[in-house]
């Protein structure tokens, strides 16, 4: 499942993605290109391939 907000110039400016695997484990990915917070990314994984 995912949702997005498109900017007036075309590309996505906000997006949220909900992921779920066969074991019913879920993860959420959220991003915003227009927030006034520092732009940073953190990925925490255990036994996973990206």
Could you explain how this protein is built, in words?
0% of the residues lie in helices and 42% in strands. It has 50 residues and is an all-beta fold. It has a domain at 2-32. The radius of gyration is 13 Å and the shape is flat. The two termini are 19 Å apart. The mean pLDDT is 78.
Quickly describe the structure.
The protein has strands at residues 2-6, 12-20, 26-32. It has 50 residues and is mainly β. The mean pLDDT is 78.
Strand content: 35-45%
Helix-and-strand structural type:
mainly beta
What is the residue-mean pLDDT, rounded to a whole number? 78
List how many beta strands DSSP finds. Answer: 3
- Our count of helices gives 0
**Helical coverage, percent range:** under 10%
Q: Describe the sheet with the most strands.
A: 3 strands, antiparallel
- Name the shape in a single word: flat
Radius of gyration: 13 Å
Order of helices and strands: EEE
Give the low-confidence spans.
none
Q: CA-to-CA gap between the ends?
A: 19 Å
Q: What is the strand arrangement across the widest sheet?
A: 1-2-3
List the helices and strands and how they pair.
Blueprint: E1 2-6, E2 12-20, E3 26-32
Antiparallel strand pairs: 1-2, 2-3
Comma- or semicolon-separated keywords:
50 residues, mainly beta, 3-stranded antiparallel sheet, flat
């Amino acid at each position: 499942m995912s949702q997005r907000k498109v900017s007036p110039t075309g590309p996505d400016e906000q997006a949220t993605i909900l992921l779920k695997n066969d074991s019913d484990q879920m993860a959420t990915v959220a991003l915003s290109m227009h927030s006034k917070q520092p732009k940073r990314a953190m990925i925490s994984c255990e036994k996973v391939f990206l």
